[in-house]
Amino acid sequence: MSDFDHEVVIVGLGPTGLTLANLLGRRGVDVLVLEREPEYYGLARAVYTDDEGMRIFQTAGVADEIAADMNVDSTVQWVRGDGRVLAQFNQIERPLGWPVANFLYQPYLENSLERALERYPHVTVRRGRAVTGFDQDGAGVTVRHAAGTGTGYGKRDAEIDSGSTESVRAKFLVGADGGRSIVRTDLGIEMTGISFPERWLVVDLKTHPDADAFRHLPYFDFVCDPALPIVSCPQPDGHHRFEFMLTDEQTREEMEDPATVRRYISRFVDPDECEVLRKLVYTFNAVVADRWRAGRVLLAGDAAHMTPQFIGQGMNSGVRDADNLSWKLTAILRHGADPAILDSYETERRPHAKAMIDLSVFNKNIVSLSNPVLAAARDIGLSTAVRVPGLGDWIRRAKIKPAPRFRRGAYLGQPRPLLRGVQGRLAPQPEIRTYDGRHRRLDDTLGPGFAVLGYAADPRRAFTEGNLAVLHTLGARFVTVYPLGGRPQGRPGEGRDDLVDIEDHTGVLTRWFRRARLHPGGVVLLRPDRYVFGTAQRDESAALVAALNRQLCLPAPHADPRTIPSAASPHRSANAPAVVTTTELATPKATVRPGSEEIR
Q1: pTM of the predicted structure, to 2 decimals
Q2: Of 117, 174, 119, 182, the residue nearest 141 (C-alpha)
């Protein structure tokens, strides 16, 4: 670090930048965050996160705090203009350890994420600093930034004080600076997709302290009214959002007029019982950047892809980017992996982000139909579909949502078999039982790095000493997963080493091991983002470590003093060092078209 001021510079202090800074901070990476706006925005844009997002916030160490400020397990429904229900989504199962539906008030989320950064003295946040340029070479990036007035979050042109310019040297630069990304612009990277002409009026409300203005609106509603498509979104702590689709004849000035806003919200609430926090006419984009990486400079969040608001996945896609990037950067910076592994960031994330964009556009097309004949056909189709066996359950459980799995041949890990393969898929997170009889979420026992799970056996016994050294170099944590009632008893003093043992009292992991075609003694290697790198029976473990070593391009490990235990015994929970990893493969190309700014 003698030639560097920081290891990573992040541009942008929105949800993506905040999440990335927290994940890197927890893994000990030195980070500088530059935010051009001197003052915090303080209003909501995103309104929702899912169980994948909450699991990532769990890794960042903030999930329990932010969950306390959320509206969880709300039913999401598509209704007619008169309120009759067409279809509902109301999954209450928690396969990833968190509710699938979590409605939030973004200022609360961002405040929690920013407070969490205070835990890390090696993470520096500087507001009111605009990036004015950067240059990179084979070793790092030089970033120039200066004091500025900011844009008031898009309301004015920024003024830059050129006399305050500073330069910092870092090993990597991540542009998480939104749809108008200066990092992406300076790289000459454009965006491909569609900028939709439809305009919507968003109105954010807050109930007065002595009123209960939204009690009669318990669920998230897509109001499929051809005369006026509407979105009605419950939020925590007395907040609520409405969105109204404009006609071609209506102007921004007319729709943002307080009298118009009052008339529109009067359909649902008593305007005298609530305060209008924000009213804004906006358009939206469905676009993806041509490239997400240029050498040591990377794009994340809205700088890389912009998602229409109709399934609430814009912010969540950026949070997934942060999760993917954070452990790969750590693998390079802490474990000597080749920077070429960052090519897998785009090959892994682009297809999923694009699928979320496509689903959002699909839902927009359902909700915003203004032709009465087509709207009537939609209503018949939706209400019929939910009564069809199998299809109705598929709708109610939102199985249309893109699954958390990577495309075959485009991810860091062993190839996934055609049938029953778990490689390249997100592992489940059930509640588990610790040796001392306490229930915890699985990830809380795994730490923030690689983890090796052993099916009813000490996973270390599956590896040679040399292969163990590779895993120890990465700081991997070793965990034995016993089925309910399967933990053996031992002798006094046994189990006091660095092995973690847990009991699968729900049976979720035992069934998952069987799905992966593993027998007792087999192992699963989880990446730090909890996607499965690979699996192996005991006699196949050498190939698993060889694939890990090859794909991460790791340097030769040093000998590790820890050895394989001589006999199986019950093991107690212990701490293991944090870890991270890497990846390779090629980056897809695309042609490009700029789009307009999106509100979230």
Answers
A1: 0.91
A2: 174
